[in-house]
Amino acid sequence: MTKKIVLLVKVFDKEEYADAFIQTGEMFCKTIGQFKRIEGDIARGDQFEAPSDWHQPDRISMTLSFRTPGGDEKSFPIEGLAGPLVMQHTEHDRLNAYCMYAVTVPDFEESYETEEERLRVVEKINSMLKVHSALGEEILSLGEHAVLIIKVADFIDKVSEVAKAKGYSSWRGLVDYFDPETFHGSFEEVESVFKKRNIYSYQKEFRFVFDSSDPEGEKTLHAGPLDGIAIKLKTSEINSKFELKLAEDQHANEDPIG
């Protein structure tokens, strides 16, 4: 199912960080390696960040080989693995990431013939939008302050431009969540940094990923002022004060839904 990103949300635990994001587009980017090493904070850390391979134990075979003191080579199969075999490229540890919450809606197409049907369709769509735009408690608990990016394309362009100006390679996109109990396979190259286990699906993450020739470590980018692109709110007020709904076209003889 195709999704449309209608908003990006960044939650901060300090208002000064939210203000810096609004005023200068300040983006503090940890490395993938740092996210892997965070302990005691499952919302921010994941030891299985950027998995290149995820193989179910009943679908792989392993053999242990060794040489005896007499010089003979022997081997025997290893069976009954307790869990999946996970592989990760250490080269991805140096990449920097900036993570945000994405409010997405599925593509939809509705039709109607009468005014009564049109009103029902609008109500149906607005109910769907309300469900998809509500933030869960896990996200709201990350901090008291939030910045909502209301012009997503403009923001992405600004970030891409500053990355290019600094000579960084960059990628962006929604994180795709997989079932670790059933998925069996591999992810190609940088694709793996956009893959996470579905226990994190509530994060609905959109991330920017950067690579540079600079020394490995945290990096801070400044995308520039976000005037007209973003607004600041208390996270506790988002669900009550923010509403996503269909903007109906008031012109006669024009389909307001498309």
Q: Which radius of gyration do the C-alpha atoms yield?
A: 23 Å
| Shape assignment | globular
- Beta-sheet strand percentage? 25-35%
Question: What sequence of helices (H) and strands (E) makes up the elements?
Answer: EHEHEEEEEHHEHEEEEEEEH
The DSSP helix count reads 6
Number of strands: 15
Number of domain modules = 1
Distance between the termini: 19 Å
Mean pLDDT over the full residue set? 86
- Low-pLDDT parts are 250-258
Helix share, percent: 10-25%
Task: Report on this structure.
- The chain is an alpha+beta fold.
- It has one domain.
- The protein is 23% helix and 32% strand.
- It has 6 helices and 15 strands.
- Strands 1, 2, 7, 8, 9, 13, 14 and 15 form an 8-stranded antiparallel β-sheet that branches. A 3-stranded antiparallel β-sheet has the order 6-3-11, with no helix packed on it.
- It is globular, with a radius of gyration of 23 Å.
- Residues 250-258 have low confidence and may be disordered.
